[in-house]
Amino acid sequence: MVDKEAIFVLGAVDPEMREIARVLKRLARGFHHAAKDAEPVTTRNAYDADSVVNLTRGGRFSEALLLPLVPSVFVECTLRGREPVLRVDHHHPGDPGYSKSPEEYLEGSSLGQALWLLEIEPSETQRLLAAADHCLSAAYQGLCPGIDPADLLFMRASWRAKASGRTLTDVVEGIMQAAKEVRRYYDSEYGESLFLDPTVIPADLAEGAAYAGHPIRYREYFRNGDLKEMLKGGSPAHIERFMAMHREQGREVYGNPHRGYAGAYLH
């Protein structure tokens, strides 16, 4: 479905992007990671990349070169001065997966789109990854065909445990406790649970909210100093109201009403 000479350019690293890279490597297909100012992109600057790099184990990277006439496929990123032959994405209007429903999670997710281009039938694990990335809350509520919420929880908790160094039991208990807190603070009038003090948010809050199936609005500090307010698990109308409110206040906003999430940078 895509020229075998095409080079894939991958955006910010997350579990879905790691799996796409793993598949490309196994097939001996060419790929690089998008970079900004000679460093791998983050979710905030993935659509303003100015170069490419190669990533190795341990987070190391080296400069790479994308030749001018080589066809490219952009996966959740944009590279200045280059126009791809195909885009694989679900974040912005016009993206192939932007408006796909939970029932269409494979067509919606970037992993599913990449596998289709490579003519690969997704494995059970890849289906779980695709559903989690495209519509996590809906997947936990059983709205994605073929996705078992219990299998999804085990996969997600296992990954979080490995990434954080916590035990699997501790992570699962953290998610269950967070789900309990989300249900406790749910405001039926506003249709969301509020956690606006970033210094006291429960561990595993976002995962617990998705498991509980309640929309959640919360604030979180990130390592680079960003403070974001995020809304996850909301209806399209709910997400659109949130985005409009923050745009009116002059803030940088991102999100997808069809996938039930949005965020705004507070400073």
Please give a structural write-up:
The chain has eight helices and 13 strands. Strand 10 and strand 11 (227-232) form a beta hairpin. Helix 4 crosses helix 7. By secondary structure, the protein is α/β, with parallel strands linked by helices. Strands 1, 2, 3, 4, 5, 6 and 7 form a seven-stranded mixed β-sheet that branches. The model has no long low-confidence stretch (mean pLDDT 94). The chain is 36% helix and 21% strand.
Which structural class do the helices and strands define?
Answer: alpha/beta
Approximately how much helix is present in the residues?
A: 25-40%
Termini gap: 43 Å
Major beta sheet, specifics?
7 strands, mixed
Shape: globular
Mean pLDDT: 94
User: What ranges have pLDDT less than 50 throughout 5 or more consecutive residues?
Assistant: none
Tell me the Rg in angstroms: 19 Å
Strand content: 15-25%
| Strand segment tally | 13
Number of helices: 8
Helix/strand order: EHEEEEEEHHHHHEEHEEHEE
Please provide a brief summary of the model.
36% of the residues lie in helices and 21% in strands. The chain contains eight helices and 13 strands.
Furnish the topology, listing elements before pairings.
Layout: E1 7-10, H1 15-26, E2 31-36, E3 39-40, E4 51-55, E5 61-63, E6 72-75, E7 86-88, H2 105-108, H3 110-117, H4 124-140, H5 149-164, H6 168-184, E8 186-187, E9 192-195, H7 205-212, E10 216-221, E11 227-232, H8 236-248, E12 252-256, E13 261-265
Parallel strand pairs: 1-2, 1-6, 6-7, 9-10
Antiparallel strand pairs: 2-3, 2-4, 4-5, 8-9, 10-11, 11-13, 12-13
Helix pairs in contact: 1-3, 4-5, 4-7, 5-6, 6-7
